[in-house]
Every structure is written in structure tokens, then in C-alpha cells.
């Protein structure tokens, strides 16, 4: 059994990588333990210096890394370049701010001195997805390193080149051997790593089903876990929305990365006064998208990352149509080489339909008619997911008030749902447990130790 990397634009096999044997895995765990133990005693100036060096490596290798992303999972090259830049920015931000984020919290008590100090947990096992093969890793890795932890990485099996590029880049920046370790291992071996006494926390980004399994394993072994799972984000358009601005964002939020984004807007909830105009404008803009080589400047729609993912999206679209949704454009695979799917718009989507109830991880927009603002809130919440939501209105106070009533981890007024290193990121309900980024994120994999001096 091995990991294979294929070019999603044409389906060609690029390279295969052998799995680690259990003996090789044990050796890597042993080296990782030694590296993490030493790193936990490091001072912030050393950690910061390493993160600045990693940022420089990302900048120096920007083009090569972006091309690896595009070749391996199909992302448009400009989007891949932006992903590399975001990783470099995260390194610089935490290098400059982590020490302040992890300062002791002084607490007033009857004691002479009482405080909470934030200390490293040890080795964090990161199980990461393919859709942002650098950013998802760095979103976990950077705060973990600045908190004094080590990291083991099990990346998605279709992006092994990205995984190995990350490990090499960090070693080239001067990191000790074993501080960040790529593990080319099976699902069964991942279970052994979670259970291993040398591993102290688990970070997972991926599907709801896999997240539930990983959370169960982590719970059985009493390991701290952070999960960032699926989403069915609502994009709410009110009467006074700036429709052109909203549509510019809607196109990026649904069709960027071929729709393969957990925080992509998937359900477009539109009030009666704007729904016809919104629908017509979206169909027109979608029909202008052009699929093709991710390296070409003319391409505006990327391929999907794998054939099985495209097949699942098509099954979900067909199920939705059979349930009463209307296909306004697209809604079928594109013939020829590669894993392309026509950019698609469904309307007449209602609660209970597949396009409403499930996460469609592909370039498919589901338009949902709502009666009014109260119905928009109710329909936004009528899902087991709770990752993000955006609302479009000129009344900013009302927009914020509505977002406070929607059960999500992050809400945006007149902006695309996105992660920002300064803000906590994560979901509620079936969209996850815990937070990444911001002060909340860097403290997730710390021991919040209470000290009381009588």
C-alpha cells in the first residue's frame, strides 16, 4: 500500500510513496519525543527566530511550493501563491506576538500571588486535509511550535509531495530533527499514534465522519483534541444588500478552489425582493467561469482534487434534483481528462433536500428562498453544521445582531467567511470542537497550570 499523487487536471500519476513500516514509525516517534522534550525548554526568542526563518523559507520558495500545490491537488496557481503567502504571514505574526499571547494571567485571590501559566503539552499529532495542503498544516503547526510543542503530521494521501515539502522547508529553516515530522502512514497506524503515550494532543481537519472516529480514539486515550470539520455555511442576502459586491464575494466563496472549502458559502438564503435578481446574476457569472489548466492565467475554475470526490458531488446534485431542486446551470461532470465538474446552480432548494442538509464539497451553489429576516435566521440554523455564516446588508448594526442569533463559530457582515491569525477559528455543533488561531487557538495545546502562592 502506498500514497499516490495524481494531477487532477489530467488524472496522470505523478509519483507514489511507500508507507512507513511500524519499525520506521517507532524510530520517528522516538526522535520526535527527544526533539519535543528539548523544544519545550526553549525560550521565546529561539522559537521566534525559527518561525521568522520558516517565513523566509516560504517566501524564498514561494513559486515552487505553489506549483507543487497546483500540480498535486489542482488549485489555481494564483490561489496557491496566496496560500503560501498566508502561511508566511502566520509565521511572522506568531513569531512577533506569541510571547504576549502566552503571558501568565494574574488572578486576584486571597493568596499572595495566584496565576495561570501556559506551558507546552508535548507532541501534537496533526491529521490534515488536502484542500489547503500548506495552510491547514501551518494553521496548526505555527501556534504549536510557538507554544513549545513538537508536531507529527499525517497529511492526506493525495498530497504527499506537499507534506514532504513542508518537512524539508522547516528543516532547512534550522529546526531540530524530529521537531516537525511527516508520517506517511495508514489510517490504522494513525490510530496507534493517537494511542501512543508520547503523543499529547490531536488536531484534525476533515470530514465529520472521520472527525467523530478520531475524537472517539482521542477520548479513549484521554488526549486533548481539536476538530475542524465540515460546514454548510449560509450566505444571507437582505433587502438592502449591495448585490454587486455580494455577488463578487459569492463567486469566490462558492467557486474558489472548485468549491472544496469547509468555510465556503454553500446555501444562499435570499429574501423575496432580491431573489430573482440574485439568481439571474449568479447564473450569468457562473456561466462565465472557464475550466482548464490550473497553471493558465485564463482558467477560472479548478479541477476537483480526486475522481471519487467529483463522483460524490454529482450523486448529491442528482439526489437534490430528484428531491425537487431545479438545475439552473451545470450539474454534471465535464467530459475529457481530469476531474472537472461544471460550475452549478440549484434553486428551489428546501430543508430536507440533500443540497440543504449535507455539505456539497464542490462547485455547486444552492439558492434557498426565505420569507424574511426571521426565516433567514431559522433556515441558517436548520442544519447540524455550525462553522460560518455571512450576511449582506447596509445596516451593519442589524447584520451583527442577526449573526449573534446564528449558531456558528464565525460570522461576517458584508465579507467572506475566512480565517485570520488574530481571531479564533472553529465551529460548533457537527462542525468541530475547539479553536485554532488567535489567543484561544494557541492556548488549546497548552497546559493551563494554576499556581497559588499562599
Automatic annotation (TrEMBL):
InterPro entries: Ald_DH/histidinol_DH, Ald_DH_C, Ald_DH_CS_CYS, Ald_DH_N, Aldehyde_DH_dom, ALDH_GabD1-like, GABD/Sad-like
EC number: 1.2.1.16
GO-annotated molecular function: aldehyde dehydrogenase [NAD(P)+] activity; succinate-semialdehyde dehydrogenase (NAD+) activity
Descriptive protein name: Succinate-semialdehyde dehydrogenase (NADP+)
UniProt-listed SUPFAM superfamilies: ALDH-like (SSF53720)
UniProt entry tagged with the keyword NADP: yes
Keywords of this entry: NADP, Oxidoreductase
Lineage: Bacteria, Pseudomonadati, Pseudomonadota, Gammaproteobacteria, Oceanospirillales
Domain Aldehyde dehydrogenase: 3-450
CDD domains (alphabetical): ALDH_SSADH1_GabD1
Family from the record: Belongs to the aldehyde dehydrogenase family.
Keyword NADP found: yes
Gene3D superfamilies reported in the protein's UniProt record: Aldehyde Dehydrogenase, Chain A, domain 1, Aldehyde Dehydrogenase, Chain A, domain 2
